[in-house]
Each structure stands twice: as C-alpha cells, then as structure tokens.
Amino acid sequence: MKEIIINDHKLEDSEIEKKVIRVKALIFNSKERIILAHNNNTYQFPGGHKTDEESMEDCILREIKEETGLSLEMKEAPFLCIKTYDNDYFGTGKKVLNCIYYYRFFTDELPNFMETQYDELEMATDFNLYYINWKDLKSFLEEHESSEEMDPNIAREMLHVIDEYNELFKKNNLV
Q: Closest by alpha carbon to 71, among 80, 58, 85, 61?
C-alpha cells in the first residue's frame, strides 16, 4: 500500500494529540463511472470514520452501506493511505493526525436509497450521490477546487488519490 504524507505545518509525531482513522471508497461501475458524494458543501468519495471497536474492513463496508445503500463484498486491501498532520483540526485547535485509507470496489448495482442511513450532518447538509466518468474526475475537481462547492483540502487529497490510482492500476491495466 502506498502512503502519502501531508505535513504543511511540519508537526512532529510527539505533538499529535489525537489520531483519526477514516476510510474512503472508490466505487466504479463497468462503464468506468465512479460514485461521488456531495454534502457539507464539498464533493468527496463515500466513506467515514472508523470506530475503536470495528475493523477497517467492517468500517468501509458499513460506510458504503450507510451512504449508498449498497452491500458490497471486500475483495482487496486498501491501495493508498493519506496521512495528514493538521495543526487546527476543524477549528478545534487540536493537533491531529488524520489517516484516510482508500479502497476500490466494482459494481453495476445502483445506490439503494431505501437502505441508506445518513447521520445528522449528512441529512442537514443535503447529502447527495453523483456518478462521474473517471476520466473526467480530475478536471472536474480542478474546476471546483477553488469554488464554494469544494473544500480545497479535500480536493487536494482527491487529486492525490486519482494520480496514485492511475499510477497503480490504469498504467498496469489492473482496473
């Protein structure tokens, strides 16, 4: 698994007050379209936070089910981890290490909105799902990166994911 470290504030591990583990899913269909979530004023890959008592695999499958209504099977380990050292985690003043593990899934099943379970924030911020062609995703993010529809930090992470995914899988025809 490839690892990318983003440490703009040059924090040391000894300064970190909390570690947050999150998971994100790249869910492709056979037409190379990918599901994007939009809520809380940004686009992102479906996913969320891992609880202390659950495994990474249980977490990603739970998050996919909650946000898309899809019941998918785990077939691969994560292909990427982005570790971001944050000096002011969501305005709390805390120094946090945020680790996001990225998985890929393939299904032609459509999201099942009768099976979703959105949390309060997702419901309050009009959570929506969209399909976008994989080949168009990078330019889409670059266009929206500085708009009010996209958190620039999430856009930067997603652009890293696209580049790494293409390097690992597209180049080697492992899609």
A: 61
Model pLDDT for residues 106-163, shown as the tens digit of each residue: 999 999 999 998 888 787 778 899 999 999 999 999 988 877 778 888 998 999 999 9
In three-state form (DSSP H/G/I as H, E/B as E, the rest C), the secondary structure along 57-73 is HHHHHHHHHHHHCCCCC
Alpha carbons 65 and 62: distance in angstroms, whole number? 5
Sign of CA dihedral 71, 45, 80, 167: positive
Beta bridge partners of 58: none
Check if the beta carbon of residue 75 is closer than 8 Å to that of residue 57: no
User: Hey, what CATH class is 2-133 in?
Assistant: alpha beta
Residue 67 φ then ψ, to 5°? -95, -25
pTM: 0.92
Q: Where are the domains of the chain?
A: 2-133
> For 89-114, how does the pLDDT look when each residue is reduced to its tens digit (9 = 90+)?
989 999 999 999 999 999 999 999 99
Hunting for tokens 């739970």 — which residue is that? 62
Give the separation between CA 162 and CA 135, rounded to whole angstroms.
10
